Amino acid sequence: MAEDVLAAIRALAPGLRERAAEAETLRRVPETSIKEIEETGFFQLLQPKPFGGRAADPALFYTVVKEIAKACGSTGWVASVVGVHPWHVALYDPRAQQEVWGENPKARVCSSYAPTGKVTVVDGGFRVTGRWHFSSGCDHADWALLGGLVPDADGTPVDMRTFLIPRSEYRIDDVWDTVGLRGTGSNDILVEDVFVPEHRALSFGPVTALQVPGHQINPEPLYRLPYAAVFTTTISTPIVGIAEGAYESCIEATRKRFRISYGQTVAEDPFAQVRIARAASDIDAGWLQLSRNITEMYGLAARGEELTMALRTRARRDQVLATERSVAALDLLMENSGGNAMRTGPNSVQRAWRDAHTGRGHAANDPERALVMFGQAALGIDINDSMA
Asked: Torsion over CA of 377, 381, 385 and 388, rounded to 10 degrees?
């Protein structure tokens, strides 16, 4: 059962937590952690059934992601991003899905969606060249999803597509060296004049319209959810998990701390208590809204009902605010943690603080853009944004 994955991940959490420092040192998730997570069946949760997947309820997927991120932020981030890509591949032409999973049902996929490469239209497909940044978990992947703008005969961009390219046709440039999320291995991907057939180049138009070739073999409601909601929730959920894990660590540490300057335990400080309350509320609010929206969307898709623009923009509103609240909660927890929290070393609250602030910089976490869309929808203004 898909629910068994959650129990298995919770059993793995202590080991993932112990390897968090190793992930930072390696600047990638340790192979041991990837292997353990793979053995739970996690990476198959959103994979289509014809290729050995479970096509599971996305709310379960995000709950599992949150548990992983509580133990190790970098591992949770990579699990979330790599784990959601089977959902995207399931939207592609069945021929592309066969190429990815036909011989290896456990093949994993990384991504870099920003259209930074050069695309040339040729007979039967496209030729692709360029460098793509921030491909989290790419060292653990067999394929890559890379964004690109498709030009017309005059060179004017007329379409945006995501190109599915096998590991044998790109190389990884090890450039990831950051303050936070150091263990995600979000390196660059380099492609040099690679041919991508038409069936491995999916346009954002059909994806946004929820009318994709993958529906031929994948009719489940999971694959009739909006790309924007699925992928931005994929980014915010690990950040909420990071904050929740830090909160639990902070509570445990605070019970034991004594503040010499005030002659009392920190637990007795009413101001510390208020910070704890505010942090807990922000974390809870973020998760409750994220899980509510994805559950509501999945229920509508299962019943064949419309996923309205009001709901889509609400999901984006709550997603960016879940990140904002989690970062704010971690700031409060750091204020409560004292000077020792700033020392280098295996301090989970400090690492969580660095990880969450780094994750906040992801393009999906641009609050103004998402909040403007919600406001426009509420006021009856047409929205022309592929990320709604």
From this structure: 10
Query: Is there a domain that residue 249 lies in?
Result: yes
Q: For residue 275, is it within any domain?
A: yes
For residue 385, being part of any structural domain is answered with no
C-alpha count within 13 angstroms, C-beta hemisphere, residue 369: 13
Residue 372 lies in a domain: yes
- Spatial CA neighbour of 61 closest among 118, 14, 2: 2
User: Residue 145: beta bridge partners?
Assistant: 111, 164
Dihedral over Cα of 177, 178, 181, 187: its sign: negative
> Tokens 């346009």 — which residue?
203
Instruction: Give the chain's domain count.
Output: 3
- Beta strand pairing call for 264-265 and 171-173: unpaired
pTM of the complete model beyond 0.85: yes
Per-residue pLDDT tens for 132-154? 999 999 999 999 999 999 999 99
Task: Report the SS3 class of residue 249.
Answer: helix
Distance CA 16, CA 75 (A): 8
Backbone angles phi, psi at 332, to 5 degrees: -65, -40
Task: Find out whether 190 and 173 touch, Cβ atoms under 8 Å.
Answer: yes
User: Does an H or E element contain 149, and which?
Assistant: strand 143-151
- Answer yes or no: are the C-beta atoms of 388 and 316 closer than 8 Å: yes
Q: Evaluate if residue 179 carries a pLDDT over 80.
A: yes
Q: Which residues contact 260 (CB under 8 A, 6 or more apart)?
A: none
Closest CA to 13 of 69, 81, 82, 60: 69
| Backbone angles phi and psi of 121, in degrees to 5 | -80, 130
Residue 56 and residue 41: Cα distance in Å, rounded? 11
- Provide the domain limits for residue 49: 3-105
Tens digits of per-residue pLDDT, 72-129? 999 999 999 999 999 999 999 999 999 999 999 999 999 999 999 999 999 999 999 9
Shortest CA distance to 246 belongs to which of 137, 82, 357? Answer: 357
